[in-house]
Specification:
The complex is a heterodimer of chains A (about 250) and B (about 325). With about 250 residues, chain A is an all-alpha fold. Helix content of chain A is about 65%, strand content about 0%. The longest helix of chain A has 29 residues, at about 35-60. The radius of gyration of chain A is 18 Å and the shape is globular. Chain B has about 325 residues and is mostly helical. In chain B, strand 1 and strand 2 form a beta hairpin. The termini of chain B are far apart. The chains are: A mainly alpha (about 250), B mainly alpha (about 325).
Amino acid sequence: MKKENLYNYILGIADNSLILGQRMGELCGHGPSLETDIACTNISLDLFGQVRSYFQYASKIAGDGRTEDDIAMLRKEREYKNVLLVEQPNTDFAYTLGRQFLFDVYHLAFLKELQKSTDLTLSAIANKCVKEVSYHERFSSDWIKRLGDGTEESKQKMQEAINDLWTYTDELFHQTDADKAMVAEGIGVDVTKLKENYYSDVSQVLEKATLQVPVSKYFQKGGKQGIHTEHLGYLLSDLQYMQRTYPNMEW
Amino acid sequence: MSEEQIRSLERQFDERISRDEKIEPKDWMPEKYRKTHIRQMSQHAHSEIVGMLPEGNWITRAPSLRRKVALLAKVQDEAGHGLYLYSATETLGISRDEMYEQLHTGKAKYSSIFNYPTITWADMGAIGWLVDGAAIINQVPLCNTSYGPYARAMIRVCKEESFHQRQGFEIMMKLANGTPEQKDMAQDALNRWWWPSLMMLGPTDDVSVHTEQSMKWKLKRKSNDDLRQQFIDQTVPQAELIGLTIPDPDLKWNEERGSYDFGEIDWDEFWQVVKGHGPMNKERMKARVGAWERGEWVRDAAMAHAEKKRYRSEKKAV
């Protein structure tokens, strides 16, 4: 492939939206209230919309006949490049919101930088996504504050979720080879530069939510290299079921 | 209020309805009108919410990104319909929590069709095409019903439903024109959803208990049997168009009536499902009650937080 780094770079971005969208889609019809149900479905819908834009572009770059669906649904588990954070399960609403919040803060900062990409397609996609993700970030931050500064029970649950998910945050700022190559070309975002602001933004919200900012220095990584947690395989079984069972068909 | 006064109010009320005037929440209305509307409107709202489950079942497994996005949007529309139907019902003096309570305890009903399982992707097509198709036939007349908030809600609901129906038909068409395996999947879904869809139009006129009063209040414009005939006459040519067979050996065009004759509906099955013993009644209720119970601490936290915020801003103001 001629533009292999660009292709891999796009997949790295899109896989986060794909896997998180799939997780949020699981909740449809099962939310704690009708309003939150609609909001979670809406976030899922936005994320899959983004995925389509990215994969349609990736499909064009690959130029080997693979469609957006082939790229989304017909890779092996080791070929998915999403961060470990987004594949974590919907243990309860605190984990769902905690995962969303910890990703949204990063996602928004990332997209704001991607808007400046010299790749016009990527910057156009970022322009569209940034509006949606600002809404996601507002929604999840508000809920962190509500649940943190709500009842004793909600505070405890929210704190536990943040503590557990914290270990997956550092990976957001790791660079792959494709990342480095794209940064050098002015196409990609240098995620290492987002780290400081990220932790300060996240901490501000947690403090407002009367929650403790975790202090752990031990972090998990591997998602960007395709080494995932055990959760991903099950998620992919659902995601890929139809494409695997009924190959080469139009839907 | 004396009986004489009430009778006079009732007369005026009936006259307003026959003049096609809308009844609004603050207007006087007979208690029976209020109760009947709470029953029907909340049942309608519950159907939207429970109806999210059979389709939600396929969101994570949709075969393509395009279909996944469309399905998410559709189920989200249903949640939206639920939301404004609950709000419209609240104008009659009942809270959403009370309506949920009635649903969860089995006091309130929802459309029986959602007690059937969605076992293949083609069921997403069949539900859109047939179930939403039958729902539209039931609902279009409600856009002119006498209770203002319900009529206005239904105008929006119907617009979206007709979009869903086309979307469902398009899923079926794609399958029917696909590989033999896909065509089988489509035919199988039609076989399973056809009869329950006919049952959605309600029991036959001779046993339907609510018809007469509902006609007067414009909650109904046509009888169940007429609606069913309309649904069949509209759907059979659509099935033919995409090369699928309606699973009814007695289905035959009747030149004289200008309509299709059709076979006997299994009303025992209908009543079994209505009474709570369909294939998925228990699972659907378990899913709804489970979501509600698991969400309790979230709702409590939101209330507590709002309370704290209010307290703080009041303190600041002082």
